[in-house]
Amino acid sequence: MLIVQKYGGTSLGDAEKVRMAASRVVKLHQQGHQVLVVVSAQGDTTDLLIEKAVTINRRGSAREMDAYLAAGEQMSAALMAMAIGAMGYPAVSLTGWQAGIETDGVHGNAQIQSIRCGRIRRELQQGKIVVVSGFQGVDADGDITTLGRGGSDTTAVALAAWLKADKCQIFTDVDGVYDRDPRIYRDATRFGRISYEKMLALVENGAQVLHDRSVELARSHGIAVEVLSAFTGAPGTIVGTFESL
User: When you count CB atoms within 10 A of the terminal residue's CB, does the N or C end of the chain come out lower?
Assistant: First the structure.
């Protein structure tokens, strides 16, 4: 079974959390699965990078900002691969362009056009756990592009679609999709499953649990996405085709 897992910034916020995520990935590998991991930048890394850039040039070009901000996810990917390696298992980190993710040229809000999966397939066939930097790709000119806030969700779903993965899981700091923010409202209701359409409606109303493009991409490719907690390991919310919801 080929499993794609994505870990958000809060799920990788410190060394212990990185090791926790790596341990979960290794367990799947031990069970005989092929595993591809997509990672976001750790914690507040992206915000901190933006703050530093502004001190240099408040009107820096979108192209240079993409080249700069992509480093956050690359650092996470390398750290995850190192954590897996420390547990005695083979892993390789890939940038968006090394993973073959091709985008349009809209810097700061690019859309994935296609994915050349050859490198990823070769690494998986060699028995490695593949860790891909989320949120990024490369345009036709060879320039680094980023996919906008939450773009790592889209990276994960796109890779699951192009690779025809058996499972796509999005690990975050909440244990699924709720009708409203459970961190604010104690009486928020968690969905066991939810349709793409209802998920998109929640996103339009401000829910930040999934990137809107990731939901649209999952719907167009028929990819069921599970949203679950990176800390509890409990089953989460399945986003998919559910006519009755």
Answer: N
